[in-house]
Design brief:
Strand content: 15-25%
Radius of gyration: 16 Å
Distance between the termini: 28 Å
Helix content: under 10%
Largest sheet: 4 strands, antiparallel
Order of helices and strands: EEEEEE
Strand order of the largest sheet: 1-2-5-6
Number of strands: 6
């Protein structure tokens, strides 16, 4: 899970079934999964530096965050 597979530094990991609190700081937020195929979430806003991007207009959309790529799927009209 590193961009350099030859690195000897343990720089990244994925944890399943537990939370390694030594690998992050802040607060975890839990969201119910909307679709099993893609682990979709229901989203009502996107914040950047704590400020709303104003894309949703009080509506909710299904989005899929993907830890395996640099992409996030969302409805085309939000792009």
């Amino acid at each position: 899970m590193t961009d350099n597979p030859w690195s000897t530094v343990d720089s990244s990991e994925a944890c399943f079934g537990y939370i390694d609190t030594s690998r992050f700081y802040g607060t975890l937020e839990w969201h119910p999964v909307q679709g099993r195929e893609f682990w979709s979430l229901l989203v009502d806003d996107i914040l950047v530096d704590g400020k709303s991007l104003g894309l949703f207009n009080d509506q909710k959309y299904t989005m899929t965050p993907d830890t395996g790529t640099t992409y996030m799927t969302m409805p085309t009209k939000l792009l």
